[in-house]
Design brief:
Elements (H helix, E strand, L loop, with lengths): L5 E4 L9 H16 L3 E6 L11 H12 L8 E2 L2 E2 L2 E2 L4 H13 L3 E4 L3 H13 L16 H9 L5 E4 L6 E6 L3 E6 L7 E3 L7 H11 L4 E5 L6 H11 L5 E5 L2 E2 L15 H6 L4 H9 L14 H7 L10 E2 L2 H14 L2 H13 L10 H11 L8 H4 L13 H7 L4 H14 L5 H15 L4 H12 L7 H8 L1 H15 L4
Parallel strand pairs: 1-2, 2-5, 11-12, 13-14
Antiparallel strand pairs: 3-4, 6-7, 7-10, 8-9
Helix pairs in contact: 1-10, 6-7, 9-11, 12-13, 16-17, 16-20, 18-20
C-alpha cells in the first residue's frame, strides 16, 4: 500500500533564497499537492557560523510571495512555524549515542593539527580521497571515558566499513553505486555540540516520515553517506530524486558571476510571482506537450517526477521575460493600474498627480509592448514628461527639406481643429500626404520623434490624443527650434 506522500523543503539560513532553492521548494510543493501529500518546512541551521541575520524571514517571505504554502511545523503564535534544527539538538545527540552504543560510531579526540597532517600526507601520496585514519576507533572504553571526563575536545564519527559497495536508486538517475573506500568516517556531532548536516538531515527525514527526498543534484555526493546512516540505524530508505543543475547559456553552473541568482533580485526587478513560478517549473521538467503558460493549478495537475530530466536546465532570461510579458497581458486593466500606482511611488514621478483615466489610457495602448509594469513609464516616458534629448542620428536619418514644413503644417492645423478625434487626425495626415505628394510615413516619422523623442512605440495618433493638443504643439515647437536651422 502506498504511504502518504511527505516531502520537505529544508533550506539553510545563509542568505537570500537562490533560484535553485526556489525550484527545489516548488518541485516538492507540486509533487506533494499532486499526490495529496504534505510539505514540511525545515530550517537547517546547525552551522551557526554561516547563519545570516534575517535569512529565515526572507525564506518565509519568499515562499509567501510565490504562493508556496507548507503544511506542517510546530504550532507557535497562532500559526505553524518551520521546524528549526537548532531546537532539536537533544534528539541528534540521542541518536548519535545510539550509534556509539551499537559500535556504528565512535568518539574522535584528534586535534586539528593532526587531522591537517594526515590530509597533507595523503595528498602527498596522491591518494584518490583524503580520509581520517581511524586512530580513535582503537581507543579503549577507559581511554574514551577518561578523555570525556577531562573535557578533551572531540567529535563523533560514523564508522564506515571499507570494502563495501553502497547502492541506492535515484528516481531520476537510476541506480547509483559507490565504494565505501571512497567515503570518509564522516563527523556526526561537531566539537561545538552541533550535529553536522548529514546526521541532522537523516534523523529529521526519518522522524518526520519523509517519503521522497527531492533536492538539487549538488547533494548527490552526500547521498551515499546518508544511505550508510539509514543502514546504521536500521531504517528503510526514502525515495531519492536529485534535480538537474541550473545552467547559464554557456552551460556553466548558474552563479552570481554571470547574473542574478537570488529570488529577491527578480522580485525587485518587477517579475511577477506567477510568471517566475511558471518559468522555474520548466527548468528541468517537461510537461510532455507544447504548453508553456501554466496556472499553479495546472502545474499541480500535470507535475510528476517522471517528467524531470537528468540533463542540466538552461536558465534563459529571454524566456523568463517572455513569460512575464504574457502574464502582464493577461492582467485586467484595474490590476495593472494598482500595480502602476505602486511603481510610480518609487519613481521620479512620485509627486505628480495622474488621474485613473489617464493612467488607464496609457495601460490600454502600452499593454502589448511591456515586459514589466515599470515599462509603462520607462518605455512610455513621453506620457509623463517632454522628451529632454533627441538622438541626433535619428534626427539626421528622418530629416529632409520638407520636415520643417510638414511639422509646421500639422501643428498649425491642430491649433484650429474643432473636433480633436483620431478620425480627424487621420484625415489631416491624408490631406498633408496628398498635397505634398509624400507617403504618410514621411509625416509620421518626424512627428513621432518630435512628440516622443523616439521612433518606437504605439501609434502616434493614439499618443497625441492622450497627451493632448497643447503638449503636442509645444513639443513640435521645441523640436523645430532645436533642429530646423541645423539642416
Amino acid at each position: 500500500m502506498q504511504k502518504d506522500i511527505r516531502v520537505r523543503y529544508a533550506p539553510s539560513p545563509t542568505g537570500f533564497v537562490h533560484i535553485g532553492n526556489l525550484r527545489t521548494a516548488l518541485f516538492n510543493y507540486l509533487f506533494a499537492k499532486h499526490n495529496n501529500g504534505k510539505l514540511v518546512l525545515r530550517i537547517e541551521d546547525t552551522d551557526q557560523l554561516r547563519k545570516v541575520e534575517g535569512a529565515v524571514e526572507n525564506i518565509i517571505r519568499t515562499l509567501q510571495w510565490v504562493g508556496i504554502e507548507y503544511d506542517e511545523g510546530p504550532y507557535k503564535g497562532g500559526d505553524y512555524a518551520p521546524y528549526f534544527q537548532s531546537e532539536r539538538l537533544e534528539i541528534y545527540h540521542e541518536h548519535a549515542k545510539y550509534l556509539i552504543d551499537k559500535k556504528k560510531a565512535y568518539y574522535c579526540f584528534c586535534t586539528e593539527e593532526r587531522l591537517n597532517a594526515i590530509k597533507q600526507e595523503q595528498q602527498k601520496q596522491k591518494q584518490p580521497v583524503t580520509k581520517y585514519d581511524k586512530k580513535c576507533l582503537s581507543l579503549t572504553e577507559d581511554e574514551v571515558q577518561k578523555n570525556l571526563q577531562a573535557g578533551v575536545p572531540h567529535v563523533i564519527r560514523l564508522n564506515v566499513i571499507p570494502g563495501m559497495t553502497i547502492k541506492f536508486n535515484d528516481f531520476i538517475r537510476g541506480e547509483v553505486q559507490i565504494l565505501s573506500d571512497l567515503i570518509d568516517d564522516q563527523v556526526l556531532i561537531k566539537s561545538d555540540g552541533y550535529p553536522t548536516y548529514h546526521l541532522a538531515n537523516v534523523v529529521d527525514d526519518y522522524l518526520m516520515k519523509i517519503t521522497h527526498i527531492i533536492r538539487g543534484e549538488e547533494w548527490l555526493p552526500s547521498t551515499p553517506k546518508h544511505v550508510l546512516l539509514y543502514e546504521a540505524f536500521g531504517w528503510e530508505l526514502p525515495i531519492f530524486a536529485h534535480l538537474p543543475l541550473l545552467l547559464n547559456k554557456d552551460r556553466s553552473k548558474l552563479s552570481k558571476r554571470q547574473g542574478d541568482v537570488a529570488v529577491e533580485d527578480y522580485k525587485s526587478k518587477g517579475y511577477l510571482p506567477d510568471a517566475l513560478i511558471n518559468f522555474i517549473a520548466l527548468l528541468g521538467w517537461n510537461p510532455k506537450d507544447e504548453q508553456e503558460i501554466f496556472s499553479i493549478t495546472e502545474l499541480i495537475d500535470k507535475f510528476t517526477l517522471e517528467g524531470v530530466h537528468k540533463s542540466g536546465a538552461i536558465f534563459d532570461i529571454e524566456k523568463l521575460n517572455w513569460i512575464n510579458a504574457e502574464y502582464l497581458r493577461k492582467k485586467q486593466g484595474f490590476e495593472l493600474l494598482i500595480m502602476l500606482r505602486e511603481e510610480l511611488k518609487n519613481s521620479k514621478y512620485s509627486n505628480e498627480d495622474y488621474s485613473d483615466e489617464y493612467l488607464m489610457n496609457i495601460i490600454t495602448i502600452m499593454k502589448p509592448r511591456i515586459t514589466f509594469v515599470r515599462d509603462l513609464y520607462e518605455k512610455g516616458y513621453y506620457f509623463f514628461e517632454e522628451p529632454q534629448d533627441y538622438d541626433f542620428n535619428l534626427v539626421e536619418k528622418i530629416w529632409n527639406p520638407t520636415t520643417t514644413g510638414i511639422l509646421t503644417r500639422f501643428k498649425d492645423e491642430l491649433k484650429i481643429m474643432q473636433s480633436f478625434t483620431k478620425e480627424n487626425l487621420e484625415e489631416e495626415l491624408k490631406r498633408i500626404s496628398a498635397e505634398l505628394n509624400i507617403k504618410k510615413s514621411q509625416i509620421i516619422q518626424p512627428l513621432r520623434l518630435a512628440v516622443t523623442g523616439t521612433t518606437e512605440g504605439p501609434g502616434i495618433l493614439e499618443i497625441i490624443l492622450l497627451i493632448g493638443k497643447e503638449k503636442t504643439i509645444s513639443r513640435i515647437n521645441r523640436f523645430l527650434e532645436k533642429y530646423q536651422n541645423n539642416f
